Fold this protein.
Amino acid sequence: AQSVTQPDIHITVSEGASLELRCNYSYGATPYLFWYVQSPGQGLQLLLKYFSGDTLVQGIKGFEAEFKRSQSSFNLRKPSVHWSDAAEYFCAVAPVGPYDMRFGAGTRLTVKP
Amino acid sequence: DTGVSQDPRHKITKRGQNVTFRCDPISEHNRLYWYRQTLGQGPEFLTYFQNEAQLEKSRLLSDRFSAERPKGSFSTLEIQRTEQGDSAMYLCASSLEEGQGGHEQYFGPGTRLTVT
């Protein structure tokens, strides 16, 4: 079945440590790929997106993500996490076009002081 | 650009009542989307509009749900005869078309519905 998988439900990292959030998808062709962040009581904010071209994409707030076609993955990274990064992170995939977006279940990030 | 707004932010209703939510998209965006998000899950697509035309509906959108965008601007989502299983966050998003550079959706803060 076609799906978006975020294997980690909850991750805890110390402030200043590096972060990697995993996302795998199972769609035939390379879809549009997105990472969104959701803080409590807030809507979703787009961190970055990939459509084509350079497989390493830079986003806002110091985040980056790498598309790996062979692994059907689009993992999110940040070299040094800040306390304000604590939130829920969603990977989203649009197999057909940007209007056809499917979300993973999310990864909740906790940042320890 | 004031972003996507949704009203109300919170709604508590009794089972069997009807509720209506409103979404005001970013003004120049001709696409508008509705999603439902339950606790611990990502948003699930419900429906989307291009201008006033409703182009796609999810199977999640039972016959108790109806959405409109009569003038291609704001949209309403109505749930009739609410059930406890309808309790969720209802998110609205908007975008341009792909041909206009619309590769991303901008989300509103959501309406949290609690059915008692």
Q: What stands out?
A: Chain A has a mean pLDDT of 92.
